[in-house]
Design goal:
alpha+beta; Diaminopimelate Epimerase, Chain A, domain 1; 40% strand
Length: 289
């Protein structure tokens, strides 16, 4: 089937409006099959597609579903940025505060018009953290092809799960980050074996300089993501946990290895139930919407 009104949004652009992750956004069609939905991203030339549901969930959240060319995702951070940017762009409002229902969870969203685009924030919720088992860590690191000099001298890999787990792998510096050339078949097999969404390789923020990261998720059909907002929230949770702090705010630059500079903001807070995070990004809705 054809989708007549697909909007492409550059989600999580840099502060100056450059780059971002192209994301297809369209109104869902209840008559469509999941195979139809998987085809939308490929037809639009984007890695992900967001489908805005025609009605709200019982708890008041507006249903949004996310698909790559190979699978439906239980959540998508930059897709949420894109979806909420389109929802605001369809109105005459300067700000839209609402709730989104995705993957069985409903959470708060905020979209605000800015000079360079639409700034979107969403509540990621609780993020659980654990240390990977030795075989789990070894399989992922080997698939990434890291050299002996690449690992970060102080930080260590963690498994972070805002729902779907992924491995966070720190490296020494931005040069090491750009050198990463994973064996995608081995990485996909390792992620499937251990139930991981993918691997977020990063350089932590230092002082006033943003961090940098690359997300590899071949197990779900995305060899490398331009911007992965949910993993940035996971990183904020990990850094907060490591520092033993109560709150933290970070900025992480992504997409440089793909020639699509992107930036994601995240904050983490320690509470009685654990560590909760908020994730944000600036979106540019392409002409026509």
């Amino acid at each position: 089937m054809s989708w007549p009104d697909v909007t492409v949004v550059d989600a999580c652009v840099r502060r100056d409006g450059r780059g971002g992750s192209p994301t297809a956004v369209t109104d869902d069609d209840p008559a469509a099959t999941d195979a139809d939905r998987r085809a939308v991203a490929a037809a639009a030339g984007t890695s992900h597609a967001a489908f805005l549901g025609p009605r709200r969930a019982p708890d008041g959240g507006r249903t949004v579903r996310f698909f790559t060319a190979t699978a439906e995702l239980s959540g998508c951070g930059h897709g949420t940025v894109a979806a909420q940017a389109v929802r605001l762009a369809r109105t005459a409002l300067d700000e839209l505060n609402d709730r989104q229902h995705t993957g069985g969870r409903t959470f708060d969203t905020t979209a605000i018009r800015r000079p360079a685009g639409i700034e979107v924030w969403f509540d990621q919720g609780l993020v659980s953290l654990r240390h990977p088992a030795p075989d789990e860590r070894a399989a992922i690191v080997a698939a990434l092809g890291l050299t002996a000099d690449d690992p970060h001298p102080a930080d260590v890999p963690r498994i972070a799960a805002p729902g779907t787990p992924r491995m966070l792998v720190p490296v020494r510096d931005r040069s090491a980050l750009l050198r990463v050339r994973p064996h995608l078949g081995r990485l996909a097999a390792a992620c499937q074996r251990y139930g991981l969404l993918g691997c977020f390789v990063y350089v932590p923020p230092v002082g006033g300089r943003p961090g940098a990261a690359r997300m590899f998720a071949p197990a779900i059909g995305v060899d490398e993501d331009i911007a992965n907002a949910n993993s940035t929230g996971c990183l904020a949770a990990h850094l907060l946990d490591t520092a033993g702090a109560q709150t933290i705010e970070i900025e992480v630059e992504q997409g440089d290895a793909l020639g699509r500079p992107a930036g994601v903001l995240a904050s983490a807070r320690r509470g009685q139930e654990g560590i909760t995070t908020r994730v944000g990004g600036l979106a540019v809705v392409r002409d026509g919407h």
